[in-house]
Amino acid sequence: MKKVLSMIIVLLLSMALTGCNMQSLLGGLMGSKEKTSSKSSQQEEKKIIAVALNQDDPNKDMFLLGIQELAEKEELEVKVLTSKEEGDANALKDAKVLIVQAGEQSFLKEAEKGDIPILALNGLPPGVKAKGVILPDPDQAGKLMAQQIQGKVSEGQVVYLQGEAEDAVAQMNVAAFKQELAKNPKITVHSITNPPESETIAMQSLMEHLQKNPGQVKAICAKNEKLLALAYELLRSMQLTDKVQLMGGQANSKSLQRIAAGSQIADIDTSPYVQGVNAFQWAQKLMDKQSVDITQSITGDQGEVAAKIIPVKTVTTENLALIQKSYAKAAEAQKEMEKKKSESQAKGSESQGKQKSTEKSSNGNSGKGQSGEGKDGESKEKNQEGSSSAQGQSGGQGVMPEGVSKVTEKVHTEILREYLDEKGNVLGTEKNANDQVRTIPPEMLLKEQQQQQQQQQQGGQGQQGEGQDKQQGGNSSDQAKQGE
């Protein structure tokens, strides 16, 4: 007991000598505690969706636009990885989900080892177990491709460039393609595969087949744009563009130009933007530990994987103008989003620089103006009261009803795609809607409220610092007058 009393007396004496009071001392201790807890909560709540796209995919910007537009609305961070970053061990730091279209085996294994759920986009990655896959309907795509061939070819050979032989999606695609063309016994299908990233081998096989079967090949179909573009160049070199029809399975800006020029009969719109939207929504549910209502699946080299199947449609000369407008509009939106992102990063760097200079000047003026602490204390209390009243007026932030054990949020996302003519008139629309119910722990809301209060207190301290500077200026002028 005596020890406790002696400690209290020493504390009171030190406070009297330094001119500080109990309220400011406790306020400083509590403030530092709040700052520490605020920083730790920010680190805990940091959620990042990492995205690794195939840089050779002509529709990568549309995939990314679908992901980024929803991420901006939901205020979630998306980290788009470059090819170099995929080889960095720290590339997946703080990532809660990885959306991947292509990636090195070591990189994907690193994500798998770190228990980061992998969502595959547009196909299954080999060698790893994906949590799910978002892809265009392979059966529907194969069937639609075959129907376009049936309208142009009555007999002869059709070559199908399948791509990688082990690709499960490509296998489903070519199976549906062959099944549909089997309705005409006068048409035979010859499929060509190639090892991973070895499309030139497929072109060599295609050239040899054309040379061995002169005049018999009536059409060439390809699963993706890379194979179809190489086939088009081969036909040009062999002067066969007028004799062999071309049909694609992945519409993009370049293939749409070929259709417009008459070099290609049709293509398949795989809705890359919609794929990106669905990938983000699935990733968000994984981060929030919510169940996903997916009933379909496909089987790859790692077994059965849940699959979100996206409907596809044919692009012909009849609807070409509408599709081209849609792709052009998406490209403009992606450029605008990249511009806004670069501007916000520049502003962020500028504000950080100003904040550092402000901290230096405030540290340099620490210890001054002790004579005005009483008035400053009063102004600080007024600022806090103003902050509290502002919180009450803004819709009850900082108020948690008693007895709350669970908080849910209902989120409705709606995407409207418009097809316009040259004059800007709307000729057709596509509408996709998604409803989500998210569960938020009350503790997380309380932490957010503490952060908001801390930021408001820091704003009040900034105003208090301005008052101190003005007061010091007034004291200096009074001293100068007394000297005169």
TrEMBL record:
Ranges that cross the membrane: none
Entry superkingdom: Bacteria
PROSITE patterns: PROKAR_LIPOPROTEIN
Cellular component aspect of the GO annotation: cell envelope
Amino acid composition bias (Polar residues), ranges on this chain: 475-484
Location of the Periplasmic binding protein domain: 94-290
InterPro entries, alphabetized: Peripla_BP_I, SBP_2_dom
Chain intervals with Low complexity compositional bias: 449-458
Annotated region (Disordered), positions in chain: 334-484
Keyword Flavoprotein among record annotations: no
The entry's keywords: Signal
Compositional bias ranges of the Basic and acidic residues kind: 334-344, 373-384, 407-424
Location(s), subcellular: Cell envelope
Key word Signal present: yes
GO MF annotations, alphabetized: carbohydrate binding
Record-linked PANTHER family: D-ALLOSE-BINDING PERIPLASMIC PROTEIN-RELATED
Family named by the database record: Belongs to the bacterial solute-binding protein 2 family.
Protein name per its UniProtKB record: Monosaccharide ABC transporter substrate-binding protein, CUT2 family
Species this chain originates from: Desulfitobacterium chlororespirans DSM 11544
Phylogenetic lineage: Bacteria, Bacillati, Bacillota, Clostridia, Eubacteriales
